[in-house]
């Protein structure tokens, strides 16, 4: 019996050592550990670094299984225990694990926060492996924000570090990241080069999951090139390997890709078979986003087969899943805001208590000095003159030191404030629509967005449903941090409004009520009067019919070949503030011809001061500029407007946020 216990203890020890090798083989990506065996180890683990590694491995396994709730739970526990143990390497790795998990969840703002925290700790400890891991995460976030130069820099820096370390497993991931990066730019040749490099080095490591990942990505590239034979060959290679390791999440993706390929080739029976398999796996893992894609693809397949009953059935499932995801996203955002508010509240209380203690301490020190000086003055009257001179000298010294300390505190607080606002900028950028989505629907268009401060009170909005495309320019009360808060509220309430109606007039009415309700605006003098101006368009790209409604912001239309700017006037009421709950906003329906262009904007461009006489650009001059550049593409127009406003400002400070959107149909 005693011998058996000893053997089990040794086995546990060897498993933990094995986990150590797993843990630092990629610092978060995980390989073949299974949750059940890891949970068994967790029960036996002591409160030490081994337990941190088990928790981190569980975080990775549940992430791979798409159980993001449990992945967060174990990742957070790993971070907390690392801090308790003061194990900086484990703490950095836990931050990077959570950052990578945030990427899976498309929460790029939080991914950046966690990855930067991991990077700071890794640099302090010269932990090259985790530095490269942070670089990969940060590069991916920049890629999603269309900051391609910074994204490529971080990806290449990560690859360089991993090559020096000689870790083939990590090098394979860097090649794969670079392949995905160039694929997103449409550079198929570079993308294929890096994905093939990733595949070759992964074959050397023998890791089936990563090899299969490369096959699937290469298959997708061939699919984009319409080379369906090679696409199928690679996708089937991926499918066989995922079947061997029973990776249901990746099998869902692979069978979906195979289904889409067969739909493209009009091989409907095979497409249906593949998509049904994808659906089976998708239901098992409960991945709602992937199920939404499968339902949509099945609906499109049955439309091609003229099986409209089945098409409608799957379309309804797609719509229900989409509504479910929207509600989940709203709930998650609210929970995140509440957590952030609670943390800030606790931090303010802590700082207030520390400041109170500092005041009491200084008062006690001052009182003690007065007593000492008074007694000394009574006992040694003959040295009074020297005493006063000495005291004056000491007080001057202390005043200088006190001022130096205060200046240091002020500098640190300014840095903290600036850092916080920069984080807020990342969060706001992450919430803005991806311009790639806008340009995919409107190829000849632009969004010129120039915040006055780090964060902005202006924001642009984009939403696409089955029938129409919605695009809006919004100007919230104020700019900087106050305006940014309003922009976050406005974006959320626009989502809510579109969930209720697709009519632009009704959308603005719902938005008006939503803003007033959210800010608790009443007729009372104490009530806030914050609100926003908006130009909202619903575009039917097939018929070129635009339905526009505005609150204080017009739509400008320039017909192809014409030399006048037609102005479609807005309803002269703002959203929120003094506007009545029952306020109606007019909708205008405009039929566009090919080559016609419309513009929506905030008032920032026209109100910018500069020029030789330091005056505003004015609406009149703005229209003249737009007329003068109608022979240019919309991308060229964006560069022209950007260059003009920078030259106009000269050395003058920008007075307001600038947002201009142009679309040519």
**What integer is the average pLDDT?**
80
Strand content: 5-15%
Which radius of gyration do the C-alpha atoms yield? 30 Å
- Structural class call reads alpha+beta
Total number of helical segments? 22
Number of strands: 13
List the helices and strands and how they pair.
Layout: H1 2-26, H2 35-44, H3 49-64, H4 68-85, H5 88-104, H6 108-124, H7 128-144, H8 148-165, H9 168-184, H10 188-205, H11 208-224, H12 228-245, H13 248-264, H14 268-285, H15 288-304, H16 308-379, H17 384-431, H18 435-441, E1 445-450, E2 458-464, E3 469-476, H19 480-500, H20 504-518, E4 531-540, E5 545-551, E6 555-558, E7 566-568, E8 575-576, E9 587-591, E10 597-601, E11 609-610, E12 615-616, H21 619-628, H22 634-649, E13 658-664
Antiparallel strand pairs: 1-13, 2-3, 3-4, 4-5, 4-8, 5-9, 6-7, 6-10, 10-13, 11-12
Helix pairs in contact: 1-3, 2-3, 3-4, 3-5, 4-5, 5-6, 5-7, 6-7, 6-17, 7-8, 8-9, 9-10, 9-11, 10-11, 11-12, 11-13, 12-13, 13-14, 13-15, 14-15, 15-16, 17-19, 19-20
Give a structural overview.
The chain has 22 helices and 13 strands. With 665 residues, the protein is α+β, with helices and mostly antiparallel strands. Strands 2, 3, 4, 5, 8 and 9 form a 6-stranded antiparallel β-sheet that branches. A hairpin with a 4-residue loop joins strand 11 and strand 12. Helix 3 packs antiparallel against helix 4, helix 9 packs parallel to helix 11 and helix 11 packs antiparallel against helix 12.
């Amino acid at each position: 019996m005693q011998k058996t216990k000893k053997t089990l203890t040794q086995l546990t020890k060897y498993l933990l050592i094995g986990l150590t090798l797993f843990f630092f083989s990629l610092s978060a990506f995980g390989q073949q550990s299974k949750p059940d065996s890891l949970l068994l180890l967790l029960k036996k683990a002591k409160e030490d670094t081994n337990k941190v590694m088990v928790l981190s491995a569980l975080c990775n396994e549940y992430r791979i299984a798409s159980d993001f709730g449990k992945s967060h739970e174990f990742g957070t526990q790993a971070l907390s225990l690392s801090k308790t143990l003061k194990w900086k390497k484990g703490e950095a790795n836990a931050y990077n694990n959570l950052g990578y998990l945030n990427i899976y969840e498309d929460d790029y703002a939080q991914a950046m926060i966690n990855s930067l925290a991991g990077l700071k700790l890794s640099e302090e400890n010269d932990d090259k492996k985790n530095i490269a891991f942070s670089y990969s995460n940060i590069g991916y976030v920049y890629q999603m924000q269309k900051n391609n130069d910074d994204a490529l820099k971080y990806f290449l820096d990560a690859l360089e570090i991993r090559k020096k370390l000689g870790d083939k497993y990590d090098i394979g991931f860097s090649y794969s990241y670079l392949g995905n990066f160039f694929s997103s730019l449409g550079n198929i040749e570079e993308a294929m080069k890096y994905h093939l490099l990733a595949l070759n080095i992964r074959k050397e490591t023998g890791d089936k999951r990563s090899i299969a990942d490369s096959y699937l990505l290469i298959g997708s590239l061939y699919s984009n090139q319409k080379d369906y034979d090679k696409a199928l060959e690679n996708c089937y290679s991926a499918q066989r390997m995922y079947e061997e390791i029973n990776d249901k999440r990746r099998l869902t993706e692979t069978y979906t890709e195979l289904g889409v390929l067969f739909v493209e080739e009009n091989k409907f029976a095979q497409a249906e078979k593949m998509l049904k398999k994808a659906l089976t796996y998708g239901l098992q893992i409960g991945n709602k986003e992937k199920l939404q894609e499968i339902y949509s693809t099945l609906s499109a397949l049955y439309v091609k087969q003229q099986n409209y009953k089945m098409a409608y059935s799957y379309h309804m499932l797609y719509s229900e899943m989409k509504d479910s995801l929207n509600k989940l996203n709203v709930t998650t955002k609210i929970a995140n805001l509440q957590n952030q508010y609670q943390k800030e509240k606790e931090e303010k209380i802590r700082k207030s208590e520390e400041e109170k203690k500092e005041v009491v301490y200084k008062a006690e020190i001052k009182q003690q000095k007065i007593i000492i000086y008074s007694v000394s003055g009574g006992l040694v009257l003959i040295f009074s003159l020297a005493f006063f001179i000495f005291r004056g000298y000491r007080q001057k010294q202390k005043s200088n030191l006190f001022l130096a300390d205060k200046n240091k505190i002020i500098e640190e607080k300014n840095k903290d404030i600036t850092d916080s606002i920069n984080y807020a900028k990342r969060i706001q950028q992450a919430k803005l629509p991806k311009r790639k989505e806008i340009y995919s629907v409107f190829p000849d268009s632009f969004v010129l967005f120039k915040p006055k401060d780090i964060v902005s009170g202006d924001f642009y909005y984009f939403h696409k449903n089955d029938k129409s495309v919605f695009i809006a320019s919004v100007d919230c009360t104020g700019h900087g941090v106050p305006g940014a808060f309003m922009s976050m509220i406005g974006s959320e309430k626009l989502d809510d409004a579109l969930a209720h109606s697709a009519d632009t007039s009704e959308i603005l009415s719902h938005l008006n009520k939503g803003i007033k309700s959210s800010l608790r605006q009443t007729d009372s003098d104490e009530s806030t009067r914050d609100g926003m101006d908006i130009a909202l368009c619903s575009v039917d790209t097939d018929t070129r019919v635009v339905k526009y409604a505005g609150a204080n912001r017009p739509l400008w239309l320039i017909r192809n070949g014409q030399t006048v700017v037609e102005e479609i006037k807005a309803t002269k009421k703002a959203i929120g503030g003094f506007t009545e709950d029952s306020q109606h906003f007019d909708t205008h329906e405009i039929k566009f011809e090919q080559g016609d262009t419309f513009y929506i904007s905030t008032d920032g461009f026209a109100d910018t001061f500069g020029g030789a006489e330091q005056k505003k650009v004015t609406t009149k001059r703005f229209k003249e500029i737009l007329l003068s550049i109608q022979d240019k593409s919309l991308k060229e127009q964006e560069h022209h407007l950007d260059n003009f406003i920078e030259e106009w400002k000269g050395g003058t400070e920008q007075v307001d946020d600038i947002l201009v959107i142009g679309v040519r149909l």
